[in-house]
Amino acid sequence: MTTIKTLLLSSLVVALLPSAGVYAAPPDDTLVVGFSADASTFDPAQISSRDNSNIARHMFRTLYEGLPDGDTVPDLAVSYVVSDDGLDYTYTLAEGLTCEDGEPLTAEDVAYSFNRAADPANKFTGSTPGYIFSSVDFQSAEAVSELEAKISIGRKNPIAFSLLADVLIHCKDSYEALSIEEAVVAPVASGDYRLVTWDRGSQIVLEKFRGDAAFDNLVFRIIPEASTRTAELIAGNVDIITNVGPDQIDAVDSSGNAVVQKVEGTRRIYVGFNLREDFAEASEGGAAIQKTDVRKALQYAIDVPAICSQLLNFDCVRADGLVNPPNDNQSLEPYPFDPDMAEELLDAAGYPRGEDGVRFEINLQGPRGRYLNDAAVIQAIGQYLNDIGVSTTVELMEFASVYVPLIREKNAGPLFFLGTGGNLSSPLNDMTDLSTVEAGTNYTSWANPEWFDGWAEIAETTTPEEQRPIIDRMLEVFYNDPPWLMLYFQPDFYGVSNRINWEARRDERVYLWGATLASQ
């Protein structure tokens, strides 16, 4: 077998030299962030990735703001009430709100933001319609007065409030004047920053036009190569970088110019099984993974702790599902690394090795540069599968313009590598990736009724204690009929310049309005 250490060395041997490019140290009124992936859209209803959302959130406000600990505080709204049946949420807005172009921001604009995202004619597939709305069965939104907006949902959900708090609000008149295509590239801000330029694949520049944030300009540079991000940080050309390469942590910490903030992240990293019928018909591998026994067999093939320690520079306990500990099902044990068991189960499932040693062929797709050392991890997974006779072709893609559309349209696979954001406030936050079979974040098209029927039971509960046995039962279904090849919860390594004061969050939300110069 090609060892993981060999993959690590071949992918990470780099020279960390200061950048000789055209960039220079930013002025005092400007904060520069190095991201690994570009944005794909600035239409609020189409945003689906965290990097994209992190930029857009500086331009758009929400009704309430989520905090790192899972709590929420008022943003555009000052208060809210919930109807007795739990299906209507009425928010009261602050007075005097406006959008970038001076248009007053009222309850009518809030209702418009929700209804526009839900309009089937727009065919939006971002997180708002695909994840939030499917989780609560969004019905409608209306302005009941100038400052009161009512959001109606069709299914009670104990975390509906925190989900609705993530919808990006935008002004009706401004967006009715934009085509769908124009809204992608010409956002009209409801927050304190507005878009100045978007040079695709290069950088995105925002400028403050109101508010009291310390920096007048935010520059998001797109730097896919981890070693280049690190070099730019050490050279003083960038203030914050995400996804510091594990092999580069010591270089940053010893540079005297920056340090690495190490955060125990909540993002679930997994390989998805695309269970759509057309994938099953298109290849032998696509057909094989339709079988639960095959998907369980592949769990045993991957040495996840070795991937964590050798490729990501941290020790991990393998995930046993889609919920972050300690909110997971405590009775479940992660699948161990046992390639002999994997081979035995594949034999029993009707996929013995052929004369050439191959059981079946399959494609594994994934991004390059979006997640921590993702290319090396994906290649290692492909090698582990090859070792048990599953001939795996690895296809690495640019994230924003190539991979995101595949994922959004559920066309990645048959195997696809992905990370989805997690939450510590409730197991239900993590579980709502699979709120319905049709949910935009059910990228695998998994349809096990034992899981999906559980949501109706949860809706009838009133306390976390009542929910817990239902949750544990559902997580056991997920474990025994896995739509994911379960991997790990990604640690987050942020490089932060000594020039600024800024603290990384566990939930990957890179919010900059609280950042300041260290000299202030």
Automatic annotation (TrEMBL):
<dbReference type="Pfam" id="PF00496">
    <property type="entry name" value="SBP_bac_5"/>
</dbReference>
<feature type="signal peptide">
    <location>
        <begin position="1"/>
        <end position="24"/>
    </location>
</feature>
<dbReference type="InterPro" id="IPR039424">
    <property type="entry name" value="SBP_5"/>
</dbReference>
<keyword id="KW-0813">Transport</keyword>
<comment type="similarity">
    <text>Belongs to the bacterial solute-binding protein 5 family.</text>
</comment>
<dbReference type="InterPro" id="IPR000914">
    <property type="entry name" value="SBP_5_dom"/>
</dbReference>
<dbReference type="GO" id="GO:0043190">
    <property type="term" value="C:ATP-binding cassette (ABC) transporter complex"/>
</dbReference>
<dbReference type="GO" id="GO:0030288">
    <property type="term" value="C:outer membrane-bounded periplasmic space"/>
</dbReference>
<dbReference type="GO" id="GO:1904680">
    <property type="term" value="F:peptide transmembrane transporter activity"/>
</dbReference>
<keyword id="KW-0732">Signal</keyword>
<feature type="domain" description="Solute-binding protein family 5">
    <location>
        <begin position="73"/>
        <end position="435"/>
    </location>
</feature>
<protein>
    <submittedName>
        <fullName>ABC transporter substrate-binding protein</fullName>
    </submittedName>
</protein>
<dbReference type="GO" id="GO:0015833">
    <property type="term" value="P:peptide transport"/>
</dbReference>
<dbReference type="InterPro" id="IPR030678">
    <property type="entry name" value="Peptide/Ni-bd"/>
</dbReference>
